[in-house]
């Protein structure tokens, strides 16, 4: 028994010693091998980058195509591929490189790998085809959605978005309900990828959106539109969803509208005003943000009501929106600052400072309009009483106008006396 | 009587042997698992979404929270490094936790900050806030000055001030690699199951050359103690945590560099200010909360986002740090003892928690007793020389195996130590750490147990030297 145990322990010791030697040897051998491999690869890359640049520039690349043909497992194959993938990002070379990748066998090579049963090999091939902007591979990439492997699908969606064609976009949209329903892709990946298609994708996205009745997808599409440049079609699509039953959709529709360029607005902004009284807080928040961005002054009073909202994020956003109305919001701020709710008053003061509206109020201390002067002074006085007075103190230290300084002194002294 | 004593000592020797066997078996399983996981992860990195997400407006905004207490020597480089992140929308919130050196003044001068008025909502109750500092030239930097409440309290304060849905805790003596944050966020964005926390790798900053908040040149430190810690960290992060993550059983994400979903952290009440190791307690709370409510969730550890952090170079400071870590482990396990062997918590209650209790928390007692009883047994003739020698060689050799495996994994993966001299030095220190360094670590951990028993559970402050630049 003891002898067996002793022998077992000695065998373990020998095995561990062998393992250590293997590790030491592998570590050193691997480093030597890698140094050699990457030095060689770097040399090849430099050589082919120069050669390809020259040949593409001179238009003679087709005559010397044979110089670039190599075996897939070779260093030359990898070096040329790396060089071409670098060049494809340069608009001058994009089209030539796309053709070269096809003719040199890279596209067929990676398309063949799409059939692999190994997820990593397949995903890697999908990624390469996307980076090679291979439009001809679109159908094959869309077919990979059938694998039911989340990793493969995520990479395929991203690759299709890099290819960026309408066909690729339609391929994604067609499979979207199934992919999201089966949790084969995250909503964030979908949104980031669809945004990648850029402004040219907007009509297709909207066309699809109009046929679709899945709330999750509609919310995602609106989110994508809110991150793309504002257009008339996206505006009308968003307006159509302002009365949707789903709060997330209403909020996302407002998000789309909130980025509207003021000069381009040709819709009835009054449509947004009822949403300031929505039962869901984040809808109210986005409505306030949108109307502020649009400088829609008719909504000022309703926005003023939100300064006392139960939710602090809504109060902050309403205050920020009102600062965009410049002097027109002074009355509203003043009214709100006279309420008893300290939290609400502090939200207003913070936004007045953060948006630098306070500088306007300070400048108004020498305004020729007596009403503006009085109201601005009163707001500053209330802010001071709530301990939001740092900009006043800063002006006294660094400001240039003596009249303003005198007025500030009056505010500070008045408070001290009271 | 003598017979009973001999029986007990021999029994204990067998117990120590059995204990080593189990622990080493566990380590071997972790090592094998991480080897496969890391190799697969490396292949995946080639087609990872990091680049796509790094400029996407869909990437969620993050607040980088940097709690600081007496960090005037290191804080500027840390903040500069955080501000350099390659990430679409983020802000940096530094929380000066009542420092009594010039930490706040250093920050004010370096970034020309002005005192401003900001509403502070005490959602998670913290020590009072004294002021906020801001400069519109650095619109995504906010410095909060508060009264001293400890690291957990400072982090809670940062959470209260943050307006983003995610936050990343970063130690005030750390330098983040530029892609670190986006790499940490990638699993959150890609997963169809909510990822509520995600941790990255911490590497040793000592000896590294820093320029303008970024790593300029990687060099090894001169201090032996720091070199031992490099090997130790490689082992802990590259095979320890990767292995646990593969089993979906992560119980520790380093507070030095971890990303969290803010709403979830607020839902569990924020960091526990009574704990000296707030990071581990937070992860246990998150596990517990989600298991109890049967909510789907993931807590991830990934090995490619890297944060370089300073480690102690003096025994006294290292001892303080290790005692604190172990004290934190004890506090967390005792506070959440309800999880132990509780089938309601699945894997966590039946396997992970008992492992941490018996092998991590109580491990130092067995180890130190082993160092004493096994040689004594030999001296008193209760153990044959053969067995004594075999046991000694086995213990040391397995330690060497684990250390060299850690260095091998580093070589296989990220190869952040590029020179030949680095490699040989790390391998040498991987062997040497088994002759003294490991034993002294066990002693510090044992000290923590004794201190815990006698109620000395205070936070031991470690002085920072500062990065080279």
Molecular structure report:
- The complex is a heterodimer of chains A (about 425) and B (about 475).
- Chain A has a domain at about 80-165: Leucine-rich Repeat Variant.
- Chain A is built from 22 helices and no strands.
- Chain A is an all-alpha fold and about 425 residues long.
- Chain A is about 70% helix and about 0% strand.
- The mean pLDDT of chain A is about 90.
- Chain B has about 475 residues and is α/β, with parallel strands linked by helices.
- A ten-stranded mixed beta sheet of chain B has the order 3-4-5-2-1-6-11-8-12-7, with helices on both faces.
- In chain B, strand 9 (about 210) and strand 10 form a beta hairpin.
- In chain B, helix 1 (about 1-45) crosses helix 12, helix 7 packs across helix 13 (about 385-410) and helix 10 (about 315-335) packs across helix 15.
- The chains are: A mainly alpha (about 425), B alpha/beta (about 475).
- The interface between A and B is large, with 54 and 43 residues.
Entry summary:
Chain A is mainly α.
What composes the largest sheet of chain A? Answer: none
Q: Which value, in Å, is the CA radius of gyration of chain A? A: 32 Å
CATH topology of the domain at 78-166 in chain A: Leucine-rich Repeat Variant
Count of discrete alpha- or pi-helical segments spanning 4 or more residues of chain B: 15
Q: Please indicate the percent range of residues of chain A in DSSP E strands (runs of 2 or more).
A: under 5%
Write the layout of secondary structure elements.
The complex is a heterodimer of chains A (418) and B (469).
Chain A lengths: L1 H57 L16 H13 L6 H10 L2 H8 L5 H13 L6 H6 L6 H14 L2 H16 L5 H10 L5 H10 L3 H12 L5 H9 L6 H12 L22 H13 L6 H7 L5 H12 L6 H8 L4 H13 L2 H7 L6 H16 L4 H9 L3 H16 L1
Chain B lengths: L1 H44 L4 H5 L7 E7 L6 H9 L6 E8 L5 H9 L2 E3 L12 E6 L6 E6 L4 H11 L4 E5 L3 E3 L3 H11 L4 E10 L4 E3 L2 E4 L6 H23 L10 E5 H6 L10 H16 L4 E12 L5 H21 L10 H16 L1 H17 L5 H28 L7 H13 L4 H17 L16
Parallel strand pairs in B: 1-2, 1-6, 2-5, 8-12
Antiparallel strand pairs in B: 3-4, 4-5, 6-11, 7-12, 8-11, 9-10
